[in-house]
Fold this protein.
Amino acid sequence: MIYLSMDLLCSLITGKERKITKLRQKDDTMNSFKDIIGQDQIINYISKAISKNTLAHAYILTGEKGSGKRMIASLFAMFIQCEQKEVDKDVCGQCKSCKQSMGNNQPDIIRITHEKANTISVEDVRTQINNTVDIKPYSSPHKVYIIENAELMTTQAQNALLKNIEEPPGYAVFLLLTQNMEMLLPTIRSRCVILKIRNIRDDLIKQHLMDKMSIPENQANLCVAFAAGNIGRAIKLVESEQFDKMKNEVIHLVTNIGHMETEEIFSVVKKMQEYKPFIVDYLDLMAVWYRDILVYKATKNMDVVIFKEQMWQVKQKATTSSYGGIERIIGAIEKTKERLKANVNFELAMELLLLTMKEN
């Protein structure tokens, strides 16, 4: 499975995105647990905890960016406050509280904010939690605090929060969302129920992209390969025209490298400087291409190939290449990653790789 760095994603999605307005609106306004894909274990736990009145005072929702933490936490809080939650063990979406939640104006669901981009300070916690937690809920049986990026809390902020988690009012519920649970104090972790957002099966992500976003299978396969079980990442890749640009440049390179003269190769290396900050991801696209060739050569099965649009080129390369040659190229790609990580000269590392690709 290929992992796409979050730096690249941030860069890609700042470019012009495809107009998939209906999908974006749907994703931003999910109002049922039925809309959550591949997290049945967590949803079942939440439903049972609320229906059996065994709700804890503090939860940690942990998972990588784009895994669905925010959506699950929002629905969790909405479900806690729902006035008709006994219906189908899901939010009703119709009561006053649910409508307020969907409009982000439920007075007893408090989202902690912070002025500094990369820090949640002790003052943020004191002002928004410590100074308000003893005030009874305005209109609901509970008061739910949602702390996104909880790992950004300073040690002092975490200690300030700890006092509330240790001796909370009976109506208070804390939802801590984090990408790195280990950055939270052990005393915080030990007092919270931990809900781990799992990677989603590739087939479920693929089905979502094809059914909900009307994405062709070949494009869905490529996005799934890079998403590594993260549906948020897959959706952003689908919407990014910049990702398509990089993919097309890689395809042009790998399908023509065998015919390039040395001067052309040097020219390509200079052009690759554009992707230098994200070169590992560029190299991963190459790895997917050669993996396709290796798999097709071994199986003659195009169903397992990701670059189906380039079927003819994949078949031709598989026919003219040896197993050893393909494996040497894949090995060279990995070696190039190691060299770049060790700060080897960029142009030299890429020239060595492209020459290895040309020779094999």
